[in-house]
Design goal:
Number of strands: 18
Helix content: 40-55%
Strand order of the largest sheet: 14-15-13-12-11-10-9-6-16
Number of helices: 17
Shape: globular
Strand content: 15-25%
Largest sheet: 9 strands, mixed
Distance between the termini: 51 Å
Structural class: alpha/beta
Length: about 500
């Protein structure tokens, strides 16, 4: 696909809109017209043109012999007009006409729609916020209401977050096998086995060093989250070492929540669950993704669906009363009925949280043909709609949400909770309410200005071997934690 940018520089914004309809497409940019079509038969011309007191936002699209042109016109002096939004609206109209797909999130491509909703409510009230979503951003009524419901559900948790609050994230980038849909940094335990002892040793050291910054700055720990990968891919002894490192290094007296992603049922046993329980872990994830054995095989998982139920009941018998289950809508080989069966089986188990993700396509995905993408997006939309309805009827409420680039149908990921059981860490991370200090390979420390909106990041090395070999460089980077907070205090006195 060639994407032409005429009279403007909104390259990133225009690419994002094209990705709504063609998530895996290779896009070539051009700032001058060419009469010839590219080999793939796809050309999108975007243009901003001034004429007197008016501005035209134009999109001319030609996709495999189908042509569409739409123009959005605004008064040049009209207050509040955001140029990229008007241009995106013209693109949505043209590409929807050609493809037949109407994106439920309209021109909204951001990761955090509920955060935007909260911001708009704060500035203009509920009615105006919903009107902006519906009219200006072209978001459907159902998605507008979903964003509003999530924004309202988050308020109580966000009120607990204070200027001196922080959360702790521990990254365990290992799994039994790599799932076909996975885009996280993750290595199979078999391949990375020789790295694990040194990785665990250095991770304990990083946890200790990070705690020193928290203590010197008088920060208060709100939540702890072990993610990955699959933390329970490690042995019970290694898990115990890391949990002890956290409990010995940080003052967890007022910690509101301690989560470990047990994730894959084929990594869970009674010994590991007892280690978690004894260390004060109160919330775990046991993630089916699907209850179809055929689909599990398609995505590269070696366990059966019955094993998920067995490990869930084992965790319950050991006293875990706050369990999350993840599902993915749009997995290879899944059907609407199969997805419905998965949700229904989860509801029988009644976990406190159920998180429904939308499959995000990678460029090398097997689902690369345009017609396959369209059909899969429609099917996935039906799956998501079913989960929203079924979970609501069963007493679950949407409590956090985020969106990923290249997701099927430009859809969302939503966390659902039984009343009072929402995961605080998920809300704090997604809504960026306070600092998250992160340890481990691929982890990102997110520093939040205590009394402002400024956010800065410190990136750890991505791969375990690099984390190990360049550990001293990593610890030098994290000295910036203190500098960030001290700089904020200095700026506040000016």
């Amino acid at each position: 696909m060639i994407l032409f940018l005429l009279g403007h520089t909104y390259k990133y914004e225009c690419e994002k809109v094209c990705r709504i309809f063609f998530p895996t497409e290779k896009i070539i940019f051009a700032d001058g017209l060419s009469s010839s079509l590219p080999e793939d038969g796809k050309r999108v011309i975007t243009e901003i043109s001034k004429r007197g007191s008016f501005t035209d936002y134009i999109c001319k699209a030609e996709i495999n012999g189908k042509f569409s042109c739409h123009t959005v016109t605004e008064k040049s002096d009209k207050k509040g007009v955001i140029e990229e939004n008007s241009l995106a609206a013209a693109m949505i109209k043209s590409l929807s006409e050609i493809t037949g797909a109407v994106p439920p999130w309209g021109i909204l491509t951001g990761v955090r729609p509920s955060k935007l909703m909260r911001k708009l409510i704060a500035s203009g009230g509920e009615k105006e916020a919903k009107e902006i979503f519906s009219s200006e951003l072209m978001v459907s009524d159902k998605k507008t209401q979903l964003a509003f419901d999530v924004a309202m559900a988050e308020n109580e948790a966000i009120a607990l977050s204070k200027p001196d609050s922080f959360s702790l994230y521990i990254a365990i980038p290992f799994c039994p096998t790599r799932c076909s849909y996975c885009s996280f940094v993750s290595h199979s335990v078999a391949q990375a086995k020789k790295l694990i002892p040194e990785y665990v040793k250095l991770l304990c050291e990083e946890i200790k060093q990070t705690s020193a910054y928290a203590k010197s700055l008088s920060l208060k720990l709100e939540t702890v989250y072990f993610g990955g990968g699959t933390p329970t891919s490690l042995s019970a002894d290694d898990i115990k070492k890391l949990l002890n490192a956290v409990n010995e290094s940080f003052d967890a007296a007022n910690c509101r929540e301690f989560t470990v992603e047990a994730g894959r049922p084929d990594t869970i046993d009674e010994e590991k669950l007892r280690v978690l329980k004894n260390a004060g872990v109160g919330r775990i994830s046991i993630n089916p993704q699907t209850f179809s054995d055929e689909v599990l095989l398609n995505i590269g998982r070696r366990h059966k669906s019955c094993e998920t139920e067995e490990k869930f009941l084992l965790a319950r018998s050991l006293g875990f009363n706050n369990i999350n289950m993840d599902f993915i809508a749009g997995l290879t080989g899944d059907t609407l009925q199969g997805f419905k069966n998965s949700i229904e089986r989860a509801l029988v188990l009644s976990p406190e949280n159920i998180t429904v993700h939308t499959l995000a396509l990678k460029r090398a995905s097997r689902m690369s043909a345009e017609n396959e993408q369209t059909e899969s997006a429609l099917l996935t939309a039906d799956m998501v709609e079913y989960s929203n309805s079924a979970l609501s009827k069963s007493g679950y409420m949407p409590y956090y949400m985020y969106r990923q680039s290249k997701s099927l149908g430009n859809l969302e990921n939503v966390g659902w909770t039984l009343p009072g059981r929402d995961c605080l860490y998920n809300i704090y991370m997604m809504e960026e309410t306070h600092t998250v200090l992160s340890c481990g390979a691929g982890a990102v420390t997110k520093l939040k200005e205590p009394n402002g909106e400024n956010i800065e990041r410190i990136y750890n090395f991505k791969y375990p071997y690099e984390y190990i070999s360049r550990f001293s460089e990593l610890t030098d980077r994290k000295k910036y934690i203190e500098e960030f907070y001290l700089k904020g205090k200095t700026d506040g006195k000016r």
